[in-house]
Write a structure and sequence with these properties.
Elements lengths: L9 H27 L7 H19 L2 H13 L2 H22 L7 H29 L1 H20 L7 H29 L5 H23 L12 H19 L17
Helix pairs in contact: 1-2, 4-7, 4-8, 4-9, 5-6, 5-7, 6-7, 6-9, 7-8
Length: 270
Amino acid sequence: MRGSRAGASPGRRAGGELVDGVLLVAGLGGLLVVVTGPFDGLPAAVTAVLCALAAGSLAGWLRRPGTRVVGAVLRASRTGATVAAVLLLAAAFTAASYLVAVRPGQVDATTAGLVLLAFPLMMGLTGPVAGRLADRFGARPVAVAGAVVAATGFGLLASTGAGGEPLDVAWRLAVAGIGTGLYGGPTQLLVVTAAPRERIATAGAAVQSARSLGFAVGPAAAALAWNDDGTRLHTGPAFVAVTAAAVVAAVLLVPRAGRRPARPPAEEDR
């Protein structure tokens, strides 16, 4: 985003980036507060005001120069769907982790931590393999395969419901971790290699921002699986929703016939 304001002073660029961040955090934070309902019993008028402020903040963020530059890069390189897939898969990952961690009355904290370790462990082990496979077969087939494997793992978790022995949950998380490790590097490669050379950093930052946004949204969305009085967690339906998000991500990663990257953004668009 800094490159989009090359003619501006460092102070002005830093100030603009601060405004971008404040608007985005205010918008998403307001929406998450309204959706997850941490403050029960808020008057309807207060909720309406929060929604309006959040929507206004997000609308303002979308109109910011830095946001428009990122949008122009993604449109020109036809990688918006890939970035959206990264967001969905990141949200699915953190939502699944939340659902496993807070299963009521299942295991102690140590066991839950060891179970959750299966996901990042397999993701870390699979990441280098994904790079080798992408070099040999291409980034997109590996990314699609990874998303499919991740969706399969999440779907297997849905079958455990609120129960399931720790090992049963762990190996299913491992499958999802393998898929996540397979898609991570190749999706990043798809976006940065399609971007104009002078906008590679911007494209890479867009992927990371989408991933971070997914990490933030996932647990908040998963918290909606609790019933009204917080005594029951509807794990099965929640994992079905997580699986659906991963399936949508896999579909977004599938190349569409007849679509080629457009020309790089013109200088005046940057």
